C-alpha cells in the first residue's frame, strides 16, 4: 500500500468515526485481526478499517461514506465461510454485522421470526424452540455463524431434504444497497407475486449485491418425535434403494439422509473418542432421521419395518436405531466431526459437489477411480447429504506423503472431481458458494451466456463495483 | 395501425414463415382469435401474428427475428392468467408455447420430471401419478393452463401450505432470452450455489425477461392416505386457532387449509348442484386436508382428535370428515366452483391479497367494514388459502344494482382493499401476479427504490424492452 492510499485510509476512518462514533470503527492491528482471519487459512485479509454498526442506518451510513470515497466494502458475518467470500483486499473496508445480533420478534402463530443479520444461528434455533417452533437450518458452524452470512451464502446443512436450503427459509429481507440506500423487503408473506424476485437475487449473492441487515425467517412446528438410525451398507447403490423405500413410506418425515464412507467414520471415531456403534469395517454408512409432529409410535414402527425389510433383502448389512437422545447425539457427533477429524490424518483436498441423486453412485465410481489413478494411495473421505445429491468429496493424502506435495495437487484434483460432477449434470459448489476460492471455477464451468447474465445483474445492482468485489463473478 | 406498420407486419410474417415454415405462423383472423382472447374479458389482444414453434430452437429463431426487427413479443401459455399478462398490443407478436407440450422424462428415483413449457398442468400431474409420484401444483385452471405460464407467474393454488409456490417446485429452467439466445439452466439439482439465482429471476417475471421453454420439476412421493374435512366456524379467529392446533399436531401432513365465507359456499352449492354437507347457515367454513405417505390410521385419528377437541372448545360448530373419495371430491368441488358461481349473482370485483396469517381476521374486519360503508349491500364472497395468508377477497354486487354501476366502483374498491392489505404488511397480488391489470398498483404501492431495482433488472436483461412490454413494471 503506498502513502497516498494510507492517507486516504486515515481520512476515511476519520469520516466514518465522525459519522458513527469512535467505538464503531476499528483500525488497530489487534482489533482488526479477527476480521482478517480466514476459516481455511487459504487467504488473509488486508483491510485497515473494520466498521461495526449497531443498526441498519449505521450500515447504510458506512456504505454511503465508502461509496462516495470509491472504497470497496466487504460484509462479514461470523467469518465461518469456506470459500473466502469475506476476505478483504488492500484498501477495502470490512463491515461486520456482529453487533446487530438481536432477535426482533418470534411469532408462533405466523411461524415467523424477525432477526438482525448478525444473530448467531444457534441463538435463533434456541429462540424458536422456546416458542415450541423449529428453525431447521443446521450446520457445523451453527455456534458461531451468523444468519446474514447463512442467507448471503444460501447455506445448506443437514436438514435440506425436509426443509430446503436457507433460500427456502427466508420470507423477507432488508438490504443496504451498494450506494447506501436501504431496500425494505422485510415482509412476512408466504405469497407475494408483485414483481421480480429481488429477495432471491440477494440470497446466495455472497454480499456482492448488497448487505443483508435483517430477515424474516420461516419457522416450523417443533417435531414431537425423532428417530435416528445408523445403517451399514456394502454398496452405495443400496443407499439409493433405501432412500427410495423411505420416501415411498415416510416421505414427509425424512429429515436427514447422510452418507459416510467407512474411512470417514473411522477418522471421526478416532478423533471424537466415540466408539463406532457398529464395530466391523464396512465401506458405507447411512445416518438417517425421521421426525414428525404426530407423536405416538407410528413413525418408529415405519422405520423398523423399512429397515427390517432392507436387512432381509440385504440392502443394508446392519442397522442400529438410537434408543436415546444421547445415542442419537453420538451418531450425529460422528457425522459432524468428520471434517475436523481429517486434520490429524494429514493434508486434505476438499470438494462440495452435487449431482442428481440417482447419479451419486456413478459419480463416486468415476471420481474414486480417477483420483486413485492420478494419485495412488489417496484416501477417500466422502460423506454428505446423499438425500440432496450433495457430497463433500474430500480427499486425505496418502499415508507418509509430504502434506505440501499433496496440497500441490489441489488444482489437478479439482479438475478431476469438478469435471466429473459437471459432466453428470452436477455442480462444483453445492452449498459452500463461490467466494474467491471458486471464482475461477465459475468462469471455467459456466457457459458464457450464464456468466454474461450474472455480470449484467452485478452491473445493474452494483454499477460502481464496490460491493465485495472479486467474489462470485470475479473482477468485472 | 398505419400502413407502414401493416407492411412491416406482412414482411415480418414472411420472414418468420421462411425461417420456421408456413404452419408455424398464423396471421388469419380466425386463427388468431384464441390468442387475442383474455380470460376475464377485460382486454383484447391486437396482435396480427402468432408464432407456434415446435422446439426451443424455433422459439429462439422467432424471438431473434422479432428482436432484429425491433418488434415486441408476448409469450403465451394456456392463456388462463387473470391479470392480462399475455395480452398483445398493436404490432406485437404472440409466441405460443402450445405445441411444445411434451413430457420429456419422469425420473422416479430422483423425483424429477423434465417438461416442455407448453405441457398442460393436468397432463403433468397425471404423468407423475403414473410413476407413483406427485406433482403438487393444483389450481382451478389445471385442465388448460400450461406449466410455462405457471412458472412465469409463480402460480400458487391449493397445496402451497405443504409444498410451496411454483417457485419451490422448479429445479431447473431453459429460457430463450430477449435477443433470441438460449440460456440452459435445465439442471436437476437440489443444491447448486454457483452464482446469482437467475432461475428465480425468470420465475414470476411473467415473460418480461425471457420465454421459458423447458423446466425440470420437483416431484414428491404420492400420499398413501388423504383425509378431508369440512368445518363450520362462528368466527374467523377460530380458524387461526384451529390451524395452530393442526400445525402443532400434524404439521407436515397439512396439505390444505381453505377458508370460505358462508355466502361463498351458498353460491357454490347453488351453482354446482352439490348440497352443502352442513345445511345450516354459518358465517365461515374451513376445508382442510391432511395427507401422508405412511398409511395406517394414525393421521385419521389425529384429525378426529383435533376436530373433537375443537368442537368441545367451540372453536368449530360442526365438522364432517369425508368418508369416501367421492365425498371429498364434493367438498373440493364446492370450493373450486366459487369463482364461477359468482357470475350468476351479478358483477364481481375481485382481489387476491395476502397478509401475515395472523392478521387475516384483522384484514377481514377492516375490509368488510370499509367495503360496506362505501357500497352498502355489497355481498362479501371471501375465500381462499388461509393457511398461506392468501384470500380471494371477492365482492359481489348488491342485489338489484346495475352491474355496470358496481363495476364502476372497481378502482374505489381496489383502493380500499389493497390499501388495507398493504397497511397490514400484506400484498395486493398474492398469487395472480401483475400483468397489465396491476401494473398501476405496483407503481403505486411499491417504494421507489424497489421499483428502481426492478427497472434496473429489466433493463439489464431486456435492454431493448421488446420482451412482453408494459407488463409487471409498466412501460419503461
From TrEMBL, chains A, B:
Residues 43-222 form the FAD-binding PCMH-type domain. Gene3D superfamilies: 3.30.465.10, 3.30.70.2190, 3.30.70.2740, Uridine Diphospho-n-acetylenolpyruvylglucosamine Reductase, domain 2, Vanillyl-alcohol Oxidase, Chain A, domain 4. GO terms for molecular function: catalytic activity; FAD binding. It comes from the Bacteria. Its cofactor is FAD. Keywords: FAD, Flavoprotein. This is FAD-binding oxidoreductase. Belongs to the FAD-binding oxidoreductase/transferase type 4 family. One of its GO terms (biological process) is respiratory electron transport chain. Coiled coil: none annotated.
